[in-house]
Amino acid sequence: EIRYLGIEMGKNSHQPHQPWETLDARWGDCKDKTLLLVALLRELGVQAYPALVNSRFGPRLEERLPSPFLFDHVIAQVVDSTGKTHYVDGTISDQGGTLATIDTPDYGSVLIVRPDTHAPTRMTPASRASTLVEQIYTTTDYAKPAQLTVHTTYTGADADAMRSSLGTSSLEDFAH
Question: Using CA atoms, how far apart are residues 81 and 79, in angstroms rounded to an integer?
């Protein structure tokens, strides 16, 4: 429920607001939302760190010369209780599921903001996006109407897109 909105002026063009400021304002850019997410996860005892990415260069990031202007987005690296690493983009709306089922775009290489980081790390996203459509036709004979039952199951980013679509369409439009 924190709107994604960036006002890129002054020191907060590169320095995130404090988590309490973002929570109080109910809006923030990627830096603000990620720092809030990381703070909340750490309060719950979960290892989490901001991760700087470049949304255009992707895996070619490591071919670029180091620069403070190299990164244009911030996501979170989350390490679960089994030690498995996940990446969460707190700016993506309408996501559902669990840490293990959330889809995050493949931003290529990420620079984790933590003391022991010395170089970018390659993301290992696991896309779980799929749409499964099951169609069942039921008929008693050729002269009578048939019944069609359709079950559609969305997972991962496909489920996120459907949630977004349902949230912006009226019931009548969707039924049509």
Answer: 7
| φ/ψ of residue 82, rounded to 5 | -90, -5
Half-sphere exposure of 71 (CA within 13 A, CB side): 21
Is this structure's pTM higher than 0.85?
A: no
Spell out the SS3 assignment of 59-106: HHHHHCCCCCCCCCEEEEEEECCCCCEEEECCCCCCCCCCCCCCCCCC
Residue 51 CA to residue 169 CA, distance in Å, equals 34
Q: Encode pLDDT of 29-70 as tens digits.
A: 999 999 999 999 999 999 999 999 998 887 777 788 777 788
